[in-house]
Write a structure and sequence with these properties.
This protein is an alpha+beta fold. The chain has helices at 20-31, 62-71, 84-91, 100-106, 109-118, 132-141, 169-175, 235-248, 283-286, 291-299, 366-381, and strands spanning 12-16, 35-40, 53-56, 74-77, 126-129, 145-150, 160-164, 182-186, 190-200, 206-217, 220-227, 253-262, 267-273, 313-320, 340-344, 355-363. It has three domains: 12-96, Rossmann fold (3-Layer(aba) Sandwich), CATH 3.40.50; 125-186, Dna Ligase, domain 1; 190-381, D-amino Acid Aminotransferase, Chain A, domain 1, CATH 3.30.470.20. It is globular. A hairpin with a 2-residue loop joins strand 10 and strand 11 (220-227). It has eleven helices and 16 strands. The structure holds adenosine-5'-diphosphate (ADP) and magnesium ion.
Length: 385
């Protein structure tokens, strides 16, 4: 066997987490002939609807976690907040990609930023604070222009708020649940946000996707655009950061690096997601190897392989639950444009801010792709969302 002989078809891949990322992973893995077992506490979550099997238990049920490990040949995750004890329990039995050490660092914003900074990688300026007084002092230190976040478990802008000269530190502390620690970051005057995906195999070869250009609405990703041959001023720096991050962690598997670009064009790491990412969904249509297929190959011990672009440019628009406010969306309206692909995640309850699906369009330019997904979304929701 060569260093890169992946698990053979019909091997069993496990995924922690049952959401849409796990669903798209399971779909890609199934196409390669793998059988996916989902570990998730909910009944029939999006991933389990399309997987071969589910272990339904809480993440801290270590007996169930060990049963899961005994059923599969390698494990990955789509949800990174699996308790460290559960990840360790499975890592003792089967390969887990990315590995438990990386997960332990990236689960905490202070640990993550400190690790990257120590490796010489640019990150958003930050401070860890343990008391209300330190919080107030940090706000002043960042010129009354800061963002405070919980160090763990935040997503889609949850667990964070802006700190200015008028903010009362005590109120903020309790609003964020009076935790043991918080992180205060300089509030960057953003020229834009982008992300890169990096896949790295057991031999240390890495492949970078992106950058993906991301626009957020209410702290939730709204639109991503991408082009194959990207001459943009941030592209080289963002891609270089992706490789540096992968090497710093000795990554095995796939992760996403979310970057901020400041007004002077400096690219810095905002945060790392140790899994596929919403901004990479367009790789399903736009690349010969999607982020999910790359994840499946690497989880199975295969080589990281550079994908071939399938279009000059692409765009993705999220479909949030808000779009259901007027009733069931007009799905057939999507198919008026053959360049647009619809993905729905099989979620039944459409709540505001909940990611229900997404649209992807392929086109000659990013602007054209963006117009096509936005127009399609407008048609199905019959209004701008
Ligand atoms: N320090 C910052 N400066 C400017 N904008 C920020 C900062 N931190 C967060 N944001 C905005 O909030 C969004 C969500 O923050 P992020 O740290 O990525 O948390 P989440 O885990 O919720 O994605 C970012 O994509 C960005 O738009
Ligand atoms: Mg983020």
């Amino acid at each position: 066997m060569t260093a890169h002989a992946p698990l053979p078809p019909n091997s069993r891949l496990g995924v922690f987490g049952g959401g849409q990322l796990g669903r798209m992973f399971a779909q890609a893995a199934a196409r390669l002939g793998y059988r996916v077992t989902v570990f998730a506490p909910d009944e029939q979550p999006p991933a389990a609807q399309v997987a071969a099997a589910q272990v339904r238990a809480d993440y801290d049920d270590l007996d169930a976690v060990r049963r899961f490990a005994a059923e599969v040949d390698a494990i990955t995750y789509e949800f990174e907040n699996v308790p460290a004890s559960a990840v360790q329990a499975v890592a003792d039995r089967v390969p887990v990609r990315p590995g438990p050490d990386l997960l332990a660092i990236t689960r905490n914003r202070v640990r993550e930023k400190s690790f990257l900074q120590d490796k010489g990688i640019a990150v958003t300026p930050f401070r860890r604070v343990d008391t209300v007084d330190e919080l107030a002092a940090a706000a002043t230190a960042f010129g009354g222009n800061a963002v405070v976040k919980t160090t763990e478990l935040g997503y889609d802008g949850k667990g964070q708020c802006v700190l200015d000269a008028h903010t009362d530190a005590r109120t903020v502390w309790s609003a964020l649940g009076a935790p043991d620690e918080l992180i205060v970051e300089q509030r960057i005057e953003l020229a834009g946000e982008c992300s890169v995906l990096v896949a790295r195999d057991t031999a240390g070869t890495s492949v970078v996707y992106g950058p993906f250009y991301n626009t957020h609405t209410r702290h939730i990703l709204d639109i991503t655009t991408w082009q194959a041959d990207d001459p943009g001023p941030w592209a080289q720096a963002a891609r270089a950061i992706g490789t540096q991050v992968a090497d710093a962690f000795q990554l095995e598997g796939l992760l996403c690096v979310e970057c901020f670009v400041d007004a002077r064009g400096k690219v810095m790491v905002n945060e790392i997601a140790p899994r596929p990412h919403n901004s990479g969904h367009l790789t399903i249509e736009a690349c010969s190897i999607s982020q999910f297929e790359q994840q499946a190959r690497l989880t199975a011990g295969g080589a990281a392989v550079e994908p071939v672009p399938r279009a000059p440019a692409a765009a993705m628009a999220n479909l949030l639950g808000d779009g259901w406010a007027n009733g069931e969306p007009d799905w057939p309206a999507v198919w008026q444009d053959p360049a647009v692909t619809l993905h729905l995640y099989g979620k039944t309850a459409a709540r505001p801010g909940r990611k229900m699906g997404h649209l992807t369009a392929l086109a000659h330019t990013m602007a054209e792709a963006q117009a096509r997904v936005e127009n399609a979304r407008h048609r199905i929701f019959e209004r701008e969302v």
